[in-house]
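Quick check before the chapter quiz. The format below is the same one you will see on the exam, so make sure you can read both the input and the output lines.
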Amino acid sequence: MQQMNFANHAYGIKGAGKFYFVPRGAGLSDYGRKLIDSCYTDFKGRKVLIDVKHMSLRSRLDFYEYRASKGYGMIPVMASHVGVTGISKDDHSYIRKLIQPLFRKYYKLVHEQVPGKIDGTFFNPSTINLFDEDIVEILNSKGLIGISFDLRIIGEFKRNRRNT
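Here is the expected output.
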């Protein structure tokens, strides 16, 4: 979760809020495309699989589009230790507000909790987590999704304020 030349990363260290951890750039770079080509080129009959875990949403969408344009669609995509948002990337109903910090080019997204599938639970709609479209892309590639069991990542149970 730091700057790199291949793609911008997801904003995942919210508590730190330091400039170094704030993503810069917008999606996949030309270096990133070259890296994908290198990873997906057979080396002794094998390829290097790419993990989308720390990629920003924009980088992931660029990655999926690039894979499709190059015919890489059947190479498995990995998501090693993720949570899920429980919504489509186009569902903005849980966004409460966007904040642009003074003298910064980025926006901070503040969102409501997304109700979980089990009563009293919630998804975490942070863009570091997978949206419905990510899940479809990974499953269609016959890839692997590893679910993190860290409550800060996957979401939490609704807490009774009197008991916490």
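If your answer matched, good. Strands lie at 50-51, 77-82, 95-99, 108-111, 114-115, 122-123, 144-147.
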